[in-house]
Amino acid sequence: MKRWLGKAETTLGNHSDRLNAINIFPVADGDTGTNLYLTVRAAAATFADRSAADEPVNDVGAVLASAGRAAMEQARGNSGTLFAVFLCALAEPLEGHTRLSAPLLAAALNRAQIRAWSALSEPVPGTMLSVLEAAARAAGDCDTAHNGDDSNQALGLALDAAVNAALDAVVQTEDQLAPLHAAHVVDAGGVGMLLILDCLRSAVLGEELQNELLDGLHGYDLQDPHIHAGMPDDDGVEVMCTISLSPLAAATLRQRLDELGDSVIMSQVGSANPSGSAPGGADARDARDDDDDDDDAAEASYRWRVHVHVPEAEPAVAVIRSLGDPTDISVSQLSMPRDPGLPAGQHGHEY
Description:
By secondary structure, the protein is of the alpha+beta class. The protein has 12 helices and 5 strands. Strands 2-3-1-4-5 form a 5-stranded antiparallel beta sheet, with helices on both faces. It is globular and about 55 Å long.
């Protein structure tokens, strides 16, 4: 798993410019490659920052969960946030297991694609969601065909199936979204997810990356132009933050952000905090019996990573603050591609 994320970091770094060049959906801001690279880099960095003594090296799920939390806290943009959701969800079925197998891969990819689709208020086919869904379905079909065989050979077949299905899904994105069809390009986030899955295959099987996967993808040749550069600028901004909320408050925030803008993504970061820890939680309610499990569950708060595109930042920030105490609020102009060389806080405004 460490080798996978390290390889993915290097690969996305090498491909970030090309991914940026074809990034025109949901907004033509030309930063999908940059956002994916920076988010994967944050995930991979967890392994360099932690000593072996602190790390449950025999637990595949625990290793990925720690990387997923780091990715979620530092996620960039739509694509980076969805990758972080993918990684956190992927870790859950792997918890307590010392190795990956075909049945576990199928379960993990299925969990990840369900969680990624549900994180978005208005999920759209023809994006990295479709690529992830196709990979999960292929891995599941392969596992079923081999009757849950947990051998390394079966794992290799499942990984091959997942990557091949992801490639087919990437090709199909061009005809699933009108802006991609008009520009004659495939979806940038979908290509990024294809690269990430091929890095997983490469790391697990000890084989080289399949660079031929990218041959013929529309818009992806080096000589192709930066498609996003010819698109009209988006006047809005991207707002991101982390906040502790009860499930009810989170649902309220999602609804209010949906009213203000689009590309709303909300996903939990880690497990529940003690009851009453959310701002406005226990103090805003009548006293209840501490032994009432239902009430305790209702008052529990969760950390959420929030992402939204809005015309102006102030109304969105005000809504977020009205429901809790957010941290790491960042605001970036959608029309200004962000330079990966800049430190955090120089890509936009920090609140």
